[in-house]
Amino acid sequence: MLRYVTTNAGKVREAEEYLGDGISQLDYDYTEIQSDDLGTIAARGAREAYRHAGEPTLVDDAGLFVRALDGFPGPYSSYAEDTIGVERTWELASREEDRGASFRCVLAYCDGEGFDASPDPVDKDDRVAAAAAGPDADGEAEALPVKLFEGRVRGTLVEPRGEGGFGFDPIFEHEGTTFAEMDEAEKNAISHRGRALAKFGEWYAER
Ligand code: ITT
Ligand code: NA
Asked: C-alpha angle 78/83/85, rounded to 5°?
């Protein structure tokens, strides 16, 4: 059974909507290293979770990148939500003329096996993600292979609207609708996580 490693129930609902009952949540709080790169954080987490669970693991590291704030909070989004919260993140962004932002999600898969030399990465996101999957230096004799899948979506930050979704969804508008105003299927069809899940699903079906 593939384990979706997260403490966040909102992520699990979206992954289940996408991947069906082929997955189950592993509520495991892996060590989130400090890095400005989601792929590095997710790769480390996937290795740690695999060693912990002994089953194939998929770790999901995501963040909100605000253009006018040079990408803040980015990899520190969870910390930003826990400290200043969604409303005050919006207040910060609302002082800027440029309200552009993106959500990014990196999925890291580890099952203890190696991967065939992969064909050329699909796009630049995947090349960036592939580079981040390199060996780590966490003291293990050998770094387990990890495969990364990335998805991004652009949007505009707005005053909070909507009751659905989770996290920063109420302030993230895409083509006139906030992510919190969409149901799971609508959000998955365009979201960072949906795009990463689509790439993963295609690859996993072949494995
Ligand atoms: P895990 O690490 O246990 O998976 P988390 O919620 O801490 O749970 P992240 O570190 O990836 O996960 O999350 C970064 C932050 O971004 C966190 O505050 C999330 O609520 C938020 N976030 C992630 N995906 C989101 C999405 O699709 N919509 C809105 N906010 C999202
Ligand atoms: Na986290």
From this structure: 80
From the list 156, 160, 154, the residue with the least C-alpha distance to 88 is 160
The model carries a pTM of 0.91
Concerning whether 111 is annotated as a catalytic residue, the answer is no
pLDDT digits 0-9 by tens, 47-68? 999 999 999 999 999 999 999 9
CB-based contacts of 34, cutoff 8 Å, min separation 6: none
Rounded Cα distance, 168 and 1, in Å: 30
Domain that holds residue 177: 2-206
Is the C-beta atom of 60 inside 6 A of ligand 1?
yes
Ligand 2 centre and the CA of 58: distance in Å? 14
Q: What is the pLDDT of residue 141?
A: 44
* CATH code at position 174: 3.90.950.10
The Cα 75–Cα 62 span in angstroms is: 7
Total domains in the fold of the chain? 1
Question: Which ipTM value was assigned to this complex?
Answer: 0.97
